[in-house]
Amino acid sequence: MENVKTEILKKIRPSKEEVEKVKRFVSDLQAVAKTVSGLDAVIVGSLGKMTWIAGDHDIDLFLMLDQTVPREELERLGLEYGKRIVEELGGKSKIKYAEHPYVHAVIRGFDVDIVPCYRISSGEKIKSAVDRSPLHLRYVIDYMKPQMTDEIRLLKQFCKGIGIYGSDAKHLGFSGYICELLVLNYGSFDKVIEAAVNWHAPFMINVERHLGVSASKFRDQPLIIIDPVDPDRNAAAVVSGDNFIKFINACKQFLKKPSAKFFFAAQKKSLDAKQLSALKSRGTQFIALQFKRPDIIDDVLYPQLRAAVERLVSLINHEEFKALRSFEFADSDPILVFEM
Hints:
By secondary structure, the chain is an alpha+beta fold. The protein has 11 helices and 11 strands.
């Protein structure tokens, strides 16, 4: 396993030159943000924690406002300051929408999201969906040992390679924060893999040993990682049952025969003759509904698609037909597929 890890780290660990380039840009970005807004400007996510993978330079800049600021004002100031910061640095910006609007920009070749949030303390109730992010940054930095940086990179790349990385609505997988908490809890990439082969849903990890927390509180969630900064939150709530099982199975296979192939996604291939024959032998028919993609982000689109699929399956069954399987795709125009 050590040889495989060494091989992978040569590919995913940022070079000294890359680290210095990112640090210089981040320093300029924060300085301009402070001058323009007068607010504390924090780099969150993997860039802030120095756990990013080589070539992955998405930067999340959070502008921290006092809780006395009304929500409408937070959104207005976030957009105003965001646009001015981008202009000062000579970049190009556009407005994107999640729970509230924010500024996305490309500056000197870096993708930058400038997001307003409220300043809260650990355990304090959030006022917007992103308020915990600075607390997550502080927690990981405080407890991460220097040697854990590469261990976290390995786990992130492993999750990418097996196709379960990303906590967005499209992927329903493991976030960078989940990978960081797993390494903090178990100590290394190896120990995470060794522990995961024995996971059974629902599996709970309570990193901070918060008292009075029970898995029964988080119904229908296969992996429960109690957020160290908020004991009422499951940091892994988004992880789907399919991705939970995929991770466990991949860990079992990797331990049997460690290989670099687990870290890099295999190219998608068409079904071969044997697979097509097996599919035809089922005696089923596929129905696909395709329609024009609406102008909304994936985090809004995918929940709507899944709700539509669920509703259509319910209607199909009500009419005394049987949908054996159903799923959705939306890499371009959305397609809803039903195996009947």
